[in-house]
From TrEMBL:
Enzyme Commission (EC) number: 2.7.1.6
Sequence similarity: Belongs to the GHMP kinase family. GalK subfamily.
Superkingdom of the source species: Eukaryota
Catalysis: reaction(s): alpha-D-galactose + ATP = alpha-D-galactose 1-phosphate + ADP + H(+)
Biological classification of the source: Eukaryota, Fungi, Dikarya, Ascomycota, Pezizomycotina
Keywords annotated in UniProt: ATP-binding, Carbohydrate metabolism, Galactose metabolism, Kinase, Lipid biosynthesis, Lipid metabolism, Nucleotide-binding, Steroid biosynthesis, Steroid metabolism, Sterol biosynthesis, Sterol metabolism, Transferase
Molecular function terms from GO: ATP binding; galactokinase activity
Name of this chain's protein: Galactokinase
Listed PROSITE patterns: GALACTOKINASE, GHMP_KINASES_ATP
Limits of the GHMP kinase C-terminal domain: 487-558
Stored Gene3D superfamilies: 1.20.1440.340, 3.30.230.10, 3.30.70.3170
Length: 592
């Protein structure tokens, strides 16, 4: 197996030697696969890929295959900010990065060695179903977490039992600096204390576990100095915590000599790491942060293993845009977890165990899976319909009807009622499902939560079907109009919002208001995104209606709130799919 680097095909007049492997894309573009050790490369390192050259000396792929091909492999090491950001964002980002590096030198007295970067995400469809192991469709955004880093080797490292981490934030007045002396073999995190550095610690702890397994008991972590800058709004539903945790894990890996960090390993590491700060994270946020490529949404699946596939939106008339609007209702799932986010994870897990016990009439528990609490609704699905040859859409429809027949109590189920069905005592139930991430509830609304998960999983499949087979929708209106296609996608997003509001109970009046205002002003589809209970909303808006939607929000929503100038400027974002995690090696103390 030889490792090669993908880059645009060299011209025949190029003085550089031509590679002996070529990849031809079916859309007519040709690319050279350059040996990784070739000193002539002037590459965008995000396009690493592995190919068996003995079996495939020449390879032809459709565009979708090409995109999957370049997503495999390691986190890219960017040579330029152009490798990370779109052209329209470069000026602002260059200024921001320059300020970050200047402040790093001011704080620590020397230049940073590298910057670890991971973006936030907006979820297009597939809300609150990742931790039930159903597929989702997010995309990365420009807003991100940056960690400027330098390493210091303690002269007494061979005898010392600790290493040092100094961490500060560009918003030092809001997030005070800290210094930690951390034992080589343990990183302690108190998930009950909501401290901003917990996200750094969680990524640190997860990365060190991987490094110790690789290098053995003799591994000694390097001391680090870190300056953090984040533009993903906290509590905004755009995964600021996942961006910070992922960037932290990546920074620790790179600082300790891992120059080629595997994307899948980083994603799985970040998923587990964030749970250390008290959240039953599913995996969508971290997957979008790591795997995304510019210009594409991401179809993320969790069963049987974590996979990510880029998805393009076809050209439409009118052109479609995604607009993100903040409600300015803080939705910190780490603080409200016991009655909001973590409670929903528990309810979905209990529902899976209940359905299995009720349907099978067996004392055998539901087989464990990779869900946050060890069982999931997808796990029940696989057990109950594992031998079915029916299309997945039909299977989900069957599960929806089964849910309605099995869960008849709209008011919810008590611990005693659930325990009696799943063959546990109440103390056993509490220990199994509510001890790691405590929740507060007298009744668990298993019917409503399960209906949301199965119907949302079905909506994701329908959304993907429209994107992958758009012909019948794009041509339905005659001429150049794609109104039918646009409305089909929008209708599915609107259905998600209804389900989030009525069945999953994770919306709020402010989010509902933003969605209604947008639809009246021209949005095809409007829904909350992220955990909910506040935060952000996402809207599928025709390009020629974006200004009208923004004006309606300003008049009917934002003008009625006491917002700062900075908040008003950040309230609305017209988003394009962005790139995923990357490392930028600093040369000469700047980004030029």
């Amino acid at each position: 197996m030889a490792t090669y680097l993908l880059r645009p095909q060299l011209s025949t007049s190029s003085p550089r030697s031509q590679p002996n492997v070529r990849l031809k894309i079916c859309d007519g573009e040709c690319y050279d696969l350059v040996p990784l050790y070739d000193p002539t490369d002037d590459f965008q390192a995000r396009k690493f890929a592995a190919i068996d050259t003995d079996s495939y000396p020449t390879r032809t792929l459709p565009a979708s295959g090409y995109l999957s091909f370049i997503m495999a492999g390691v986190v890219p090491v960017a040579k330029s900010l152009k490798d990370i950001y779109t052209e329209d964002a470069l000026a602002a980002q260059t200024k921001r990065w320059d300020n970050l590096l200047k402040q790093f030198k001011s704080n620590y007295g020397h230049d940073a060695q590298f910057v670890s970067r991971s973006p936030g995400r907006v979820n297009i469809i597939g809300e609150h179903i990742d931790y039930s192991l159903y597929s989702v469709l997010p995309m990365a955004i420009t807003a991100d977490a940056l960690l400027a880093v330098s390493t210091k080797i303690d002269e007494s490292a061979s005898t010392s039992t600790t290493f040092k981490v100094r961490v500060s934030n560009v918003q030092g007045d809001k997030f005070p600096a800290h210094e930690f002396d951390i034992p080589f073999d343990a990183v302690e995190i108190d998930s009950k204390v909501h401290e901003w550095t917990n996200y750094l610690k969680s990524g640190l702890r997860g990365a060190l576990e991987i490094l110790r397994k690789k290098h053995g008991d003799g591994f000694r972590p390097k001391s680090m100095e870190v300056l953090m800058d984040g533009t993903v709004p906290a509590g905004g539903g755009l995964s600021s915590s996942a961006a910070f945790t992922t960037a932290s894990a990546l920074a620790v890996m790179f600082a300790n000599g891992e120059q080629s960090v595997d994307k899948t390993q980083l994603t799985e590491l970040a998923i587990v790491s964030e749970r250390a700060v008290g959240v039953n994270s599913g995996g969508m946020d971290q997957s979008a942060s790591v795997f995304s490529i510019r210009g594409s949404a991401l179809y993320v699946s969790f069963n049987p293993t974590l996979t990510a596939k880029p998805v393009h939106f076809p050209k439409t008339n009118p052109e479609l845009t995604f607009v993100i609007a903040q409600s300015f209702v803080a939705a910190d799932k780490h603080v409200t977890g016991p009655v909001c986010y973590n409670l929903r994870v528990v309810e979905c897990s209990l529902a899976a165990a209940y359905l299995h016990a009720a349907i099978n009439k067996s004392k055998d528990p539901l087989p464990s899976d990779s869900g946050p609490l060890g069982v999931s609704l997808h796990g029940f699905h696989s057990k109950y319909l594992g031998d079915s040859t029916a299309p997945l859409e039909e299977q989900l429809s069957e599960l929806i009807e089964l849910t309605k027949k099995t869960f008849t109590k709209e008011e919810g189920y008590t611990r005693e009622e659930i325990a009696s069905v799943i063959n546990m005592t109440v103390p056993e139930l509490n220990e199994r499902f509510t001890s790691t991430f405590p929740v507060r509830a007298e009744h668990f609304k298993l019917r409503q939560r399960t209906l949301h998960v199965f119907t949302e999983a079905l909506r994701v499949l329908k959304f993907m079907k429209v994107l992958e087979h758009p012909e019948s929708y794009l041509n339905a209106d005659g001429g150049n109009s794609t109104e039918t296609f646009n409305r089909k996608l929008g209708d599915l997003m609107n259905e998600t919002q209804t389900s989030c509001r009525e069945d999953f109970d994770c919306s709020c009046p402010e989010l509902d208001e933003l969605c209604e205002i947008a639809k009246k002003a021209g949005s095809y589809g409007s829904r909350l995104t992220g955990a909910g209970w506040g935060g952000c909303s996402v809207h599928l808006v025709p390009a020629d209606k974006v200004d009208a939607v923004k004006e309606a929000w300003e008049k009917e929503y934002y003008s009625k709130k006491d917002l700062s100038k900075e908040q008003k400027e950040a309230a609305i974002v017209v988003s394009k799919p962005g790139s995923g995690s990357a490392v930028f090696v600093v040369e000469g103390g700047n980004v030029a």
